[in-house]
From TrEMBL:
Residues 1-18 form the signal peptide. One of its GO terms (cellular component) is periplasmic space. It comes from Pseudoalteromonas maricaloris. Belongs to the cytochrome b562 family. GO terms for molecular function: electron transfer activity; heme binding; iron ion binding. InterPro entries: Cyt_b562, Cyt_c/b562. This is Cytochrome b562.
Length: 130
């Protein structure tokens, strides 16, 4: 009976973690979509609207529970994204849309850098360690 209860509790707790992870994944995909729209924007108003939406999504992402060992780094990465959005927004306000677009390229670099923190270990890392 204890084993059944233990298994039930384990499965229940895993489903909560999986749900949180799936919500974060959904939010991150939406962020990627909004980022692409901002990069393709033809007007300052359109780009600003996308950046405002992106800011909201980044702030939402900061509320998720990251793995404890990478939580601080993940939040730091999201803060860097917010800083970049703020700088790009200032460039747009100054009428320099192309400069803002160049600044937004840093977000893609940050994405690549910080996604490495959340990649699952490869088969070889599991087998031989890192």
């Amino acid at each position: 009976m204890r084993k059944i209860v233990f298994i039930f509790v384990l499965l229940f707790s895993m489903s909560g973690v999986a749900h949180e992870s799936s919500e974060l994944n959904k939010t991150m995909k939406e962020m990627g979509h909004i980022y692409k729209q901002a990069m393709k924007a033809q007007s300052a108003q359109e780009m600003q609207a996308h950046l405002a939406e992106l800011t909201t999504l980044v702030n939402e992402s900061k509320q998720f529970q990251f793995k404890q060992e990478v939580s601080a780094e993940s939040v730091a990465g999201l803060n860097k994204v917010l800083e970049t959005i703020t700088k790009a927004s200032q460039e747009i306000d100054s009428g320099r849309i192309e400069k803002a677009r160049e600044m937004l390229l840093k977000i893609d670099e940050l994405r690549k850098q910080y996604h490495k923190l959340h990649e699952p270990p490869s088969f070889w890392e599991l087998l031989f360690g890192s």
